Each structure stands twice: as structure tokens, then as C-alpha cells.
Amino acid sequence: MGGGIFLALRKKVFSHEQSLLLISFAAGVLLSTAFFDLLPEAVGQIGQIGQIGQIFAWMLGGIIFLFLLEKFLWYHHHDEEHEGHKRTPVLITVGDTVHNFIDGVVIAGTFMAAPATGIVTALAVAAHEIPHEMADFGVLLSKGWARKKVILVNLASAGASLLGAILMYVTGTRFESVLPYLLSFSGGMFIYLACSDLIPELHHGHKEQKADSMLQMAVFGVGIIIVLLLKGWLQYI
After folding, report:
1. Separation CA 141–CA 72 (nearest Å)
2. Cα–Cα dist 158/136, whole Å
3. How many of the other CB atoms lie within 10 Å of CB of 47?
4. What pLDDT is recorded for position 182?
5. Which are the contacts of 22, defined by CB distance < 8 A and separation ≥ 6?
6. What DSSP line would sit under the chain, residue for residue?
7. Domain coordinates in residue numbering, the chain
8. pTM here?
9. Closest C-alpha among 147, 124, 130, 136 to residue 194
10. pLDDT at residue 217, as a whole number
11. What are the average pLDDT values for consecutive 10-residue runs of the chain, which has 237 residues?
């Protein structure tokens, strides 16, 4: 939410190169959170070697879930292209609301599993949401929506995160046995977001300077290092 509001209030639009740096950082954070935090925590909680296969099944489920969700939203967005993009802002808002609700569930679930994992997951969600929300806000502003309207709609959509977190907190204690699967499901979603949405975006700039590519790779690595350092530091708290 903060990234979108910042863009709405900011008079100078982010350059393409700056946006790609944000995307590089988010991709590194998401991948490292999935492989170094969520999936190891899920395996550690499952306890039994024979059930570890289920962890990977749920990870695949997270990938498939987001794939189908994006396909569904893209299908409706594609249909509206033939109608002058009249409903594109509505579809973006609906998609953001669903995404925010899922983020709230994921963050609350990981905090319940392990506070350290919850903190790292919250960082990963924030890192991804900043460039994602900026892109969506840019589209809404380009469709003629007033900045004030964009901010209000974004605040209402962000409320879905709180709703998802509260729902998970209220019901999660009754289903503690499913927390390892929620962790692996979340890991799958993080992997999908990084490999399907973020990293391909970094490959679109074929004409970019070599220095820009090197900087993107460096920022990608910084995202990974931050997660590793944060995870190691939280183990001593």
C-alpha cells in the first residue's frame, strides 16, 4: 500500500531503470525467503520424513494457484481490451484486494508458525508489494483517476490484508497442523511471483546498458543477503 501512495503523492515518476532496481530487489527477497526460510521451516515442522513429499506438493499448489488466479484476471482484462479498457481499473482493484487478503493470511500464518519466519515473510511481501503497487497506481492514474481517489481505493483494498490476518489468527489456532502446508504453499507463491512476474520483467530491457544489468544483479544479490542476515540475526532474539 505504501508504495502506491508514495507514487500517487510523488510528482516525479520513477524512471524505468529505478523501477527495475526495485523489481530486482523484490525478486531476490522473495526467492531467498521461499528457499531459506519458508520451506525449511515447513520441513522442520512436519517432523516425519515420509511426509516431506507433501511439503513439495503444497509448494506446487501455491504455484498453480497463482498461475490460475493470474490467468483468470488476465482473461477478463483481455476481454475488456475490446471495450476500451472501461473496466480495467476495477479489475486491477479486485485483483489487488484478493492479493492483499492472501498476503494477510500468509503473514499471520507464518507469525503463528515462528515469529522470525513471520518477520522475514513480512519483509518479502513488502518488497514485492512496493513495485507491484507502483505499477498498478501508474495504470490507474493513466486511466484518468484522480490521485485522491486512487489513494482512497488503495486504502480500502489494503484493508483486505488486515481481514485476512484476523481471520487466520482467529481460526489458525484450531488448525495448527496445517501451518507447515501453509508455509510451503506460501513458498510456492513466492517462487511463482519471482520467476513468473518479476524476473521476466528484468529481461525485457534488451537495449539497456551493461552497467544497468550489472546493477540489477547486484541489487538482486543484496535482497538475498538481507534475508540471510535477517534470518541469522533473528535466531538470536
Report:
1. 24
2. 13
3. 10
4. 85
5. 14, 130, 131, 134
6. -HHHHHHHH-SSPPPHHHHHHHHHHHHHHHHHHIIIIIHHHHHHHH--GGGHHHHHHHHHHHHHHHHHHHHHHHHHHHHHGGGTTTTHHHHHHHHHHHHHHHHHHHHHHHHHH-HHHHHHHHHHHHHHHHHHHHHHHHHHHHTT--HHHHHHHHHHHHHHHHHHHHHHHHHHGGGGGGHHHHHHHHHHHHHHIIIIIIHHHHTS-TTS-HHHHHHHHHHHHHHHHHHHHHHHHHTT-
7. 16-234
8. 0.74
9. 124
10. 93
11. 52 67 86 90 74 88 88 56 51 75 88 86 82 67 73 82 88 75 88 88 72 90 89 71
pLDDT of amino acid 139? 64
Name the grid cell of 52.
516431506
pLDDT of 225 reads 92
Cell numbers standing for residue 56: 513439495
Task: Report d(CA 46, CA 31) in Å as an integer.
Answer: 21
